[in-house]
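Pasting as-is:
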Amino acid sequence: MEVLVTIFFVIIILTSFLFTLFGGFGNLLILGFSFLYSLLTRFEIIEPKVLMALALIYLTGELFEYIFIILGVKISGAGKRAGWGAIIGGLVAAAISLAFLGAGFILLTILGIFFGAFLVELKEKRNLLKAFRAGVGSFLGRFGAVVFKLLLGILMITIIVGHILGYLNII
């Protein structure tokens, strides 16, 4: 039974990783399923200290998502308020998509980030080109954040699989 649970768990975390690829919450799913798997296996395979490390990796990704977006806006020449506009726009768009059961989550979040920075910069500088650059910068920052979170997801999966293989005496 434990082997079937482990195989199912590995399939689930690999599938969860796909959510990260599309800019979603895959690393959170990996963390959540890891906790559930640990409960089912009485913390013998994935110990609490490993879960803590996975949680720290996940939280690092979330923190750096905002940093990347703000950096993207700053590199485009926009102000701090445009960076906050991008973050708030992304959060509002994500919340709206959740009201529709997550339909359009990725697209709405990207549009929210873009238009959040765009509208704030347009209001601040009253220059359409600079506002557009701020929106593009926020989009590029979001793209960088997704790449970073993909790398963190790979790290999380590597740690998990390493512990499973170590438990099974394969490595």
